[in-house]
Design brief:
Helix content: 40-55%
Strand order of the largest sheet: 2-3-4
CATH class of the largest domain: Alpha Beta
Largest sheet: 3 strands, antiparallel
Structural class: alpha+beta
Order of helices and strands: EEEEHEHHHH
CATH topology of the largest domain: Double Stranded RNA Binding Domain
Shape: elongated
Number of helices: 5
Number of strands: 5
């Protein structure tokens, strides 16, 4: 899963301002640390979808030594990796749809972070790009 570092700063109105070093245009806030981090996930996913709409690559998270992070869900991570792989390979949504025997709206849904796509569909799209999705487990501290 993609784990983006965040910076929490006390704002002038006693809220916590949340910024993302890797995607600086993503900004949100919260009254408490928990609320700020909860809103941060929404803000991050919204900005990533906006970047996808603009056909911009999605920056990968940096290795920050800070303690605050926002971890994207596994399905969102898989969709972002697929999207960036399509850009890197120069494959359009319509071309990917043609190669998997589908239609462009299917690829739109496959890349939509708000759509509950099936992982096997993402794996199929990645295989067309010559890639294989690997999944692992990590003990929670």
């Amino acid at each position: 899963m993609l784990k983006y570092p965040v910076k929490l700063t006390l704002d002038t109105n006693d809220t916590l301002l949340v910024t993302f070093p890797d995607i600086p245009e993503t900004v949100t806030f919260g009254e408490t640390r928990d609320e700020a981090l909860s809103r941060a996930l929404d803000a991050l996913e919204c900005m990533i979808m906006a970047k996808m709409d603009d056909r911009e690559p999605i920056p990968m998270p940096s290795a920050s030594k800070g303690k605050d992070f926002v971890t994207l869900p596994a399905l969102s991570t898989a969709k972002i990796l697929l999207y960036n792989s399509m850009i890197k390979a120069g494959v359009s949504k319509s071309e990917l749809a043609r190669q998997i025997g589908g239609h462009a709206p299917q690829i739109e849904r496959l890349l939509d972070l708000n759509h509950a796509s099936r992982m096997d569909q993402i794996e199929r799209a990645l295989s067309v790009l010559g890639l294989h999705l690997t999944v692992g487990l990590k003990k929670v501290a």
